[in-house]
Design a protein that fits this description.
globular; TIM Barrel; about 10% strand; two-stranded antiparallel ribbon; seven-stranded parallel β-sheet; homodimer
């Protein structure tokens, strides 16, 4: 008797097999543009309460799958759960983003505990297990973490800033202390990602939202190299782990990123130049992206054109259709339907 | 009797002749990091009062030249003087940036007057004349305007926003109305730049601060094409006009920008990938940049390293040494001295 093996189109693409219709999901697909999300969010206490309550986190993770049948679910969580587990308590100001106690002196960096309290992250694993049980086997489940650079920018500044200058200044002034922060984050991220695989994630994504503010030398040191170490560390225990990197704004540094880190795919932002990506990135790894989230807000003919551009630019190679950044809260749901219909009608 | 012609190293580089020591200036060199600027600023009423009072604008333009002997002075003004002259009154909230009445419907765009009231801009021309009279003939004088895309983003949103989504949405939804805004800005900018040349500017810079938020198709349409028309329009009357473009964040789209617009130089931000710039940009035009302004805040060995990287990356070609973006108010003056000493000691 032969075993029927259910293939996931999303995993197929990551494994080197282009799909005629590109698998599709959206960054921040579990979010405020959905009325069913807003309903659950209103019931939860704080944003972190929602992340750390397995039944609620699982519920909002599954909502966009039920509505849109995306090819992947991404666990509802936040990149700052790791600093939280490291004792740098995080809270979220409504409409303003995260707030932490800033960590911007060498002394504070040296005092940072080397090991996260992974007990605090158990609810994330539990949410993954719940989603896994309910998820159609054809749909991939994505776990994630922030890249050490991006997580460190929030830890140093204590919040988001226009171009994360506080962390850049600290990295220039106190490279040794900053290295300590990065090293702690590399180790914690490896453990956290392995925990997510163990709890049922098929794929891992590493979000480096602030990679684009770094000059080439610092990009190599603070974005590429720590990401490479995480990929290596995860694969030491889980050799087949599928990993997607997202160094937002990396531009012409993307080829170096994919060559060095060993990721299976990169997520690209909407401003990426297509021929560079085709010639020097998509030849090595799968590409995920890169619809302008603002085109999805605008809708109409402009949205159709923007979708067609993504398909024309990258559809001949291994593509996971996605946005170039997270979906915005004001996006009309009808525009998501319009996008899905058009992408799924693609004859590539 | 032969006439002694004073050459300006800055103009030499723009004219195709690399200088062994790269000429140097800093974006926002007349600014809050200087105590003498803060003193004048405190005497002026609003920020626009300072821009529109010729003796004060000339004074702050000359301050960094007196202190640092830069190779270029840039007239103290703002990119939003054109909307101001178009009847979209601008004011500046202290610490928050510009505020205008938003212009975000097709009706408002159609109602926009086609011609600026250039009478409002006469104080800028007068300030240029004053600076010209006092400036050492070896030092270049730069006039400037904002690129139509960037100016339009402020006109539409009425202020700066994290990624200027309001203008992007309007351009997607109402391309015809948005084209009207761009067309008005192209024509006004040509007249304004010609006026600045006439008043004594040697060089013109077009600041496209928000170019980097545009996908490739929109970058071509809203950044490159209007800039090309401005360069063409200026050169129709002033064939030898030297023009620098600064499409910040253009990344791998920079080669297309220089090929199409016809600028003599591009200013590049600190995250630019060096080999792309050397191989496909500096082969055609001069390159201006691209020290990380945050390295200039940090100082020390990290600043030396960052300076050396700029010189090593671009010093073999035509280079104007500058920052990758404006100098920040908290930058120590001693670090500017450190930078000048190191760049001027360069043996290229």
């Amino acid at each position: 008797m032969t075993q029927v093996r259910t293939t996931k189109p999303f995993i197929e693409v990551l494994s080197g097999r282009r799909q005629p219709v590109p698998p599709i999901w959206m960054m921040r697909q579990a979010g405020r543009y959905l009325p069913e999300y807003r309903e659950v969010r209103a019931k939860a206490g704080s944003f972190l309460d929602l992340c750390f309550t397995p039944e609620l986190a699982a519920e909002v993770t599954l909502q966009p799958i039920r509505r849109f049948s995306f090819d992947a679910a991404i666990i509802f969580s936040d990149i700052l759960v790791i600093p939280h587990a490291l004792g740098r308590e995080v809270h979220f100001e409504v409409g303003e983003g995260p707030r932490l106690r800033p960590l911007d002196t060498p002394d504070q960096a040296e005092a940072l505990g080397a090991r996260a309290d992974f007990g605090k992250l158990k609810p994330v694993y539990e949410a993954l297990r719940r989603v896994r049980r309910e998820l159609d086997p054809k749909i991939a489940l994505i776990g994630f973490c922030g890249a050490p650079w991006t997580v460190a920018t929030y830890m140093v500044a204590g919040q988001g800033t226009p171009d994360q200058a506080p962390a850049r200044i600290m990295a220039y002034r106190y490279p040794q202390a900053f290295t300590k922060i990065i090293d702690v984050l590399v180790e914690s991220s490896i453990q956290y990602l392995l925990g997510q695989l163990d709890a049922g994630a098929d794929v891992l994504q590493i979000f480096d939202t602030w990679a684009g503010v770094l000059p080439p030398r610092e990009f190599m040191r603070w974005s590429i190299e720590p990401t490479r170490r995480i990929v290596e560390g995860v694969r030491k225990k889980a050799p087949d782990a599928k990993i997607i990197g997202f160094p937002r704004g990396a531009g012409a540094l993307l080829p170096q990123y994919v060559e060095t880190t060993g990721v299976d795919a990169v997520s690209i932002d909407w401003a990426a130049e297509p021929s560079l990506i085709r010639d020097r990135v998509q030849t090595r790894v799968a590409v995920q992206g890169n619809l302008d989230p603002v085109a999805l807000i605008a809708g109409g003919a402009a949205l159709d054109q923007a979708i067609d551009d993504v398909l024309a630019n990258f559809g001949n190679g291994r593509l996971i259709f996605n946005l170039g950044h997270g979906i915005q809260p004001e996006t009309p749901i009808a525009h998501v339907d319009q996008m899905l219909k058009r992408v799924r009608a693609y004859q590539g």
